[in-house]
UniProtKB/TrEMBL annotation:
Occurrences of domain Beta-ketoacyl-[acyl-carrier-protein] synthase III N-terminal (ranges): 150-217
Database matches in Pfam families: ACP_syn_III (PF08545), ACP_syn_III_C (PF08541)
Organism: Phaeobacter inhibens
Biological process (GO), any one: secondary metabolite biosynthetic process
Domain Beta-ketoacyl-[acyl-carrier-protein] synthase III C-terminal: residue ranges: 282-371
InterPro entries the UniProt entry points to: ACP_syn_III_C, ACP_syn_III_N, Thiolase-like
Keyword Ion transport in annotation: no
Protein name: 3-oxoacyl-[acyl-carrier-protein] synthase 3
Length: 374
């Protein structure tokens, strides 16, 4: 048996941002236009007018101030209200592969490794831009990695589930190392025409290199333990899929072909699930809340993170103990906790313990307990 370790991480951040002010202005223009176009139906009581969105609500309900996106022009155009991305030829790198590649190169550079040191690529994300061939195999090819690659999807928990899969393979000796990449174009499945959720998501890609600890060339994080759990729920759901054209109205512009959630229920049901999951994982590993130096949580909602941080530590976390990045990135699905880890882990000292935790659709929750090794 070998000891798996995180030896490098990388983040690809898109160049375009949308502030809450820009987002709300575009949504409100869309709402006014839609209401004007449907004035008769609204007057006859056959349709509810669309209400305006508000910056104050978004900040208070979520903590989000802006999000990065791959294309803001379409999202902010009241005539379009979704990203506009160029259709690439089959002989060009796909957009998700390109984002993952950037993050993967940064992770390799941080670890002081090259593609020749990697055996496996796992592309773990909420959506794949095509059915097949696997995105992971394209990323493997672009990096020039031998061995094998595969895609997996556990929505917002994809990264921690991917880390568990990679860590278990490294531990057993079937591979020496794996790159877990999380390219997320959440702007593609977000319903920008719905004020209840239009502020939630952003785009990003992250990568994590998992190796045998004996292969590390610099400081690293030993993976002490991982734990994953799932429990079926329809409260976060997207019905888009390959059987779409087989259904009578399947290719219509249907609301359920984009992200849908019952946010209040998610809040109420996921918080206890996550708090209990982390507590049980820590207890099983003999880790007490006073041992834990940092929490890198899924980045969906500030209030949720404040609640979980307090539950896990038994007190209000001090500044820096539970870093949030959601104010800048919004919810980036599987990538959120890895962005937080990547940006806020260098300052820990040898022996310090930390915990990555992601949670979301499924429901799903995954946690990774780490120890810093200088
Ligand atoms: N601007 C202004 N008002 C808005 C609005 C907007 N953009 N969106 C919703 N509102 C209104 C609602 O219509 C509602 O009005 P009502 O009280 O008259 O019915 C009111 O604000 C409160 O809405 P609600 O949805 O109950 O807000 P909330 O406090 O629950 O916050 C979320 C909404 C989505 C931020 C919150 O529920 C959440 O974060 N849930 C968990 C999300 C999550 O983690 N999802 C995982 C995704 S992977």
């Amino acid at each position: 048996m070998f000891t798996p370790a995180i030896t490098g991480t990388g983040v690809f951040t898109p160049s375009q941002t949308i502030t809450n002010a820009e987002l709300v202005a575009a949504f409100n223009a869309y709402a006014d236009k839609t209401n004007a176009e449907n004035a008769k139906a609204i007057a006859a009581g056959k349709m509810e007018p669309l209400a305006h969105s508000s910056e104050e609500f978004i900040l208070k309900a979520s903590g989000i101030e802006q999000r990065y996106v791959m294309d803001k022009s379409g999202v902010l155009d009241p005539e379009v209200m979704h990203p506009l991305l160029r259709q690439r030829g089959d002989d060009e790198p796909s957009i998700m592969a390109e984002m993952a590649l950037d993050a993967a190169k940064k992770a390799l550079a941080q670890a002081g490794k090259t593609a020749a040191d990697v055996d496996t690529v796992i592309c773990a994300a909420s959506n794949m831009e095509r059915a097949y061939p696997a995105l992971a195999i394209e990323i493997q090819d672009l990096l020039g990695i031998k061995g094998f690659a595969f895609d997996m999807n556990v929505a917002c928990s994809s990264a921690t589930f991917g880390i568990q899969a990679a860590a278990d393979m490294v531990r057993s000796g079937s591979i020496r190392s794996a790159l877990v990449v999380n390219p997320e174009i959440c702007s593609g499945h977000l319903e920008w025409r719905d004020r209840d959720c239009h502020f939630i998501f952003g785009d990003v890609a992250t990568a994590t290199l998992i190796e045998r600890s004996e292969d590390a060339t610099g400081a690293y994080f030993e993976i002490l333990s991982t734990r994953c759990a799932t429990s079926f729920s329809n409260n976060i759901r997207n019905n888009n899929g390959y059987l779409r054209r087989s259904r009578p109205d399947g290719v219509e512009d249907r609301r359920d072909m984009q992200f849908m959630q019952n946010g209040r229920k998610v809040f109420k049901e996921v918080l206890p699930m996550v708090s209990q999951h982390i507590a049980e994982h820590m207890e099983a590993e003999g880790v007490s809340n006073t041992d834990l130096k940092r929490l890198w949580l899924h980045q969906a909602n500030k209030t949720m993170n404040d609640f979980i941080g307090k539950k896990v530590l038994g007190r209000t976390p001090e500044a820096g103990e539970q870093p949030n990045i959601l104010q800048d990135y919004a919810n980036t699905s599987s990538a959120g906790s890895i962005i937080a880890f990547s940006k806020y882990s260098d300052d820990l000292s040898a022996g310090d313990l930390g915990l990555i935790c992601s949670f979301g659709a499924g429901y799903s929750v995954g946690s990774v307990i780490l120890r810093r090794v200088a």
